[in-house]
Design goal:
Largest sheet: 10 strands, antiparallel
CATH superfamily: Porin
Number of domains: 1
Structural class: mainly beta
Number of strands: 10
CATH topology: Porin
Number of helices: 1
Length: 212
C-alpha cells in the first residue's frame, strides 16, 4: 500500500519531482442511514461522494499559495433532509449537494513562524469551539488571518482573526472573532494549554465567548 500511495503521489506532481508543485485529490464515499422513529419523519438514506481537488505550488522565498475546490454529489435515490434540499419530511443527514471554493490561502514562513491569510482550515484542540467538523462531507472552513509560531522553546502559539465562517451546509456567516491558543510542553509531564476565544457572529446566529 505504501508503494501504491507513493506512486499516486508521484503522478500528481507537476514537473520533474514536483518542480512546479503538486495536485491534491481527496475522494470520499459515504452512505448514512438514519432511523430515529421520530413522528412524521421517514427513514433517511444518503449516498454521497465528496471530492476535493487542489493545487499547491512550490514555496518561493517563504511564500506559498494553495487553492482547493470541494463538491458533494448525490448518487442513487437519496431520501434525506440535507438542510438545503427541502426534503424536511425525511430524517436529517447534513451532507448537502453543494460545490464551493473550499480553501484559498497564502502563507508566509519566517523565524519558525507562519502567517496564513485567506480561506483556510482551522483545528484547535478537540475542535469543540474552532474546528472543521471533519466527520461531515462538506467541511467547516474559515476566512481568517492566523499566526502560528514555535519560535520560543517548548512553546506553540496560535493566534488569529476570523471574518467569515463557511459551514457544513455551505452557508456563510460573517464573523468578528479573535482567538489565541498557547501550548507549553513540560518535559516528562505533558503539555499545558491556555486559550481565549472571542467568537462573535455578525448575522445574529450566536454570540459566544469561551476563555480559560
Amino acid at each position: 500500500m505504501t508503494d501504491f500511495n507513493q506512486s499516486v503521489e508521484n503522478i500528481l506532481k507537476v514537473g520533474d519531482k514536483g518542480k512546479y508543485g503538486q495536485i491534491k485529490v481527496d475522494l470520499n464515499y459515504r452512505f448514512e442511514h438514519v432511523d430515529t422513529d421520530s413522528a412524521g419523519k421517514s427513514v433517511g438514506n444518503a449516498s454521497t461522494v465528496r471530492s476535493r481537488i487542489g493545487y499547491l505550488p512550490p514555496t518561493f522565498q517563504g511564500l506559498q499559495l494553495y487553492a482547493e475546490y470541494e463538491g458533494n454529489q448525490d448518487f442513487g435515490a437519496n431520501t434525506y433532509n440535507s438542510f438545503r434540499n427541502g426534503k424536511t419530511h425525511y430524517e436529517t443527514v447534513a451532507d448537502p449537494q453543494q460545490h464551493e471554493l473550499n480553501r484559498a490561502w497564502v502563507n508566509y514562513h519566517f523565524f519558525e513562524s507562519n502567517l496564513k491569510m485567506g480561506r483556510q482550515r482551522i483545528k484547535l484542540d478537540n475542535d469543540r469551539f474552532i474546528g472543521n467538523v471533519g466527520w461531515r462531507q462538506m467541511e467547516q472552513i474559515y476566512d481568517a488571518a492566523v499566526l502560528t509560531s514555535s519560535f520560543f522553546p517548548d512553546m506553540d502559539i496560535t493566534a488569529g482573526y476570523i471574518i467569515k465562517i463557511q459551514d457544513i451546509k455551505s452557508l456563510s456567516t460573517a464573523m468578528d472573532s479573535q482567538f489565541i491558543h498557547v501550548g507549553y510542553t513540560v518535559p516528562r509531564f505533558g503539555t499545558l494549554v491556555g486559550y481565549s476565544y472571542w467568537l462573535h457572529y455578525n448575522d445574529n446566529v450566536a454570540d459566544n465567548v469561551k476563555s480559560t
